[in-house]
Amino acid sequence: MFLSQPPQVIQPNYYTVNFLPRSPLKPPVCSVALNNPSISSGVGAKISNNQLIQSLCKEGKLKQALRVLSQESSPSQQTYELLILCCGHRSSLSDGLRVHRHILDNGSDQDPFLATKLIGMYSDLGSVDYARKVFDKTRKRTIYVWNALFRALTLAGHGEEVLGLYWKMNRIGIESDRFTYTYVLKACVASECTADHLTKGKEIHAHLTRRGYNSHVYIMTTLVDMYARFGCVDYASYVFNGMPVRNVVSWSAMIACYAKNGKAFEALRTFREMMTETKDSSPNSVTMVSVLQACASLAALEQGRLIHGYILRRGLDSILPVISALVTMYGRCGKLEVGQRVFDRMHDRDVVSWNSLISSYGVHGYGRKAIQIFEEMLANGASPTPVTFVSVLGACSHEGLVEEGKRLFESMWRDHGIKPQVEHYACMVDLLGRANRLDEAAKMVQDMRTEPGPKVWGSLLGSCRIHGNVELAERASRRLFALEPKNAGNYVLLADIYAEARMWDEVKRVKKLLEHRGLQKLPGRCWMEVRRKMYSFVSVDEFNPLMEQIHAFLVKLAEDMKEKGYIPQTKGVLYELETEEKERIVLGHSEKLALAFGLINTSKGEPIRITKNLRLCEDCHLFTKFISKFMEKEILVRDVNRFHRFKNGVCSCGDYW
Hints:
Layout: E1 16-19, E2 30-33, H1 37-40, H2 43-58, H3 62-69, H4 77-89, H5 93-105, H6 112-124, H7 128-137, H8 143-155, H9 159-171, H10 178-187, H11 195-210, H12 217-229, H13 233-241, H14 248-260, H15 264-277, H16 285-298, H17 301-314, H18 320-332, H19 336-344, H20 351-363, H21 367-379, H22 386-399, H23 402-416, H24 422-434, H25 438-447, H26 453-467, H27 470-483, H28 488-500, H29 504-516, E3 525-530, E4 533-538, H30 548-563, H31 579-587, H32 590-601, E5 608-612, H33 618-630, E6 635-638, E7 643-647, E8 650-651
């Protein structure tokens, strides 16, 4: 055990009994300073001292308890425990060190129980180095001592160290308990989520299964969360479906897994199952945040409104993360004004609330409004986070506010002490690239002090797609193929650029590369909500006979729009085909299928809301403008980048996307 300096000991010169100032609602409390030999000697006095210290600790009077401790030669284990807990609750590291020194001087430093409590105290006080030293100096390490250190290191983000110690513990023959498995599973995702950490997580899964812990609800819930963090949705679902008992935390973990891994349909379905199957427990605020995220992903406005009503009935509308999720949900469902009203009615706001509103305006392309809200946030005393700058820089990109974005980027470190990360550079490259300042974007990538990574190179490649810069696209794609060899989207994007340049040999080469690596293009998919029911549409090259009504209507629409000036944009078709065949292919895009379905199934004056998993193509964008004008329909389409609001033949993006 350690401690560099002994604690200061207060030695009163006389025996006193005094009363603290009387509280209006509390009786006077006797404070005793013991330095009288006639009192301090004997068993009765020792018991009295221990009881007094314990009583003072329970009342939160740590300083007074420490004064009595300085006169007690034989504190009990319970006395030390309460002192340690009180130091943690009072967030007093100096007092914790003082108690620790007393334990050392008293010869109780090898008590595994007290070592466990000390490690926990140092962890709570953010002093993980002290926690390590307690562990290192403890000779008799029970499973509780190991668990305490696992917890401390995991909370501090030292997952790799936890996993190393876990294997060491196994080698010396100490058996894990349910807390051990919970901590080491959390350690797998405590730092960077790598393939090696996933492998170790699977090994721990095998260990706990062999030990018969695969029916323990807390361990299995942690396992679901671990697989979710790695994006292993199938593994998480397998674990969840095999759980004999589930609680609200288990259900919430599975819903969050789906919501955060692009499976919003499954998240809403699981939430409905939870509401049907659970009788003893109700969804909590964590559940509702994930469900609202799923509604936002699908632009499921009616579902979101139902959830909002449930939140109000349950009294969850005072919880900040829930309200912030509501702001985001309404913004992502095209109801910015409702999201703004929810925000305006908040009594308290944190930076997440501000970020939600900034992001909502940004995704709609209102960059100047997003900057205005950012400035209001600063004026209200909220400190921006890295996420704040991702949101506001993204908003600048959608409206082409290059100089404003550069000013904000420069202010990150200068004014707020936030070092730009890869995500911020990706936003800046996107901002410059969309504005056709590709040379500046390429120079920013070149001047980065760290590896640009897939996000930055992806932003550059996307900008090359917009402006048809083949040379720079080839440079960016080479880096992306090395960094993300299994990401089919990068190959497809390069093939699109070659196709627009009519470089068909290069298109064939990229397609062969896709086939050789066993990759497939992610199919375009759209979702829309009609009468509180969600529908999904997938892009197809061949007409689906099960959707004859939609296709027949769509063909008729295309013919009518051609008469009014619509010319199909087929330059993105990656095949050397006749014009008629290319037109047939683009007519099968998922956006058009969803649009036709919406026209058939919505009433006059009712907007159509569509969500798409990819960037809106030029032909679908043009087609939707014509439909909005000649069918007199407001149409909202949210693609992977932003919102497009079509009305009277005009899109809110101003053809800048």
